[in-house]
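Hi R.,

Here's the chain you asked about this morning:
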Amino acid sequence: MSVRAEDYASEVENAWCPGCGNFAILKAIKKTLVELRLPPQRVVICTGIGQAPKLPHYLTVNTFNGLHGREVAAATGIKLAAPDLTVVIHAGDGGAYGEGGNHLLHAMRRNIDMTLVVHDNKYYGLTKGQASPTTEQGTPASLQQEGVSSAPLNPLALAISQDCGMVAQVTSANVDHMAGIFAEAISHSGFSLVNALQPCVTWDKVHTFAYYREHCYELDEGYDPGDARRAFELVTAESDRIPLGIVYKSTRPAFAKPAAPGIDRPMRELAVEPGKIDMLLERFR
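And here is the predicted structure, written out as tokens:
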């Protein structure tokens, strides 16, 4: 099937700040979906609340906007009810690693076949610059004016420790590399976490595009993403060098349990039986 970039085009006015790293992620995900020949009607993008979750507004695609940090939970329900659809989740570091941390853990544990792209800009951007779970210790923020007291969460180490299906990292300073990793993540059978280092031009004056170009490096072909111990050591090493690429890939099978007993096809294909609903309602009268 032929899929063009125009198929994903949207006329919605963009509300991101000029220069925001989200623009590159949007460009990369659109490029990925076209290269994978995935028509918009076969893709669902789930989001919550925030700057990153605005992304599907700027695409013509099936979209589910839910509560802040609950996008993984909603995506789980959609994937179980319609396993033939490609489900991609976009969330900020606050929603994914803060409010949604519990949902993330269990999605990784179950290894549900969907992809989570976290726009990691180290701040709660939409709500005016509060520290997020990935803000570096000691960094001043709008509410933490004397500096963040807690050490930052290491999402890559957390994912590897849970034998997550695929764990990767990209930076929005490199669209082509991002698109390639997104394609690998979406094609992988199981839960894929892609941590996208995304400069916030409003609240973060340190982690700029230039910073990521200077400090990031791509893992070479000799790196083995199947070695969990080496992957864990890589992402926990004390270094100012930031690895990009597929950090870890598990071989365990994706979650395959049907949404309900005896259901062997997407639930939308099942016949609607209003009489059963009447029977249920009768029980509550």
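One quick note: The longest strand covers residues 242-249.

Cheers,
M.
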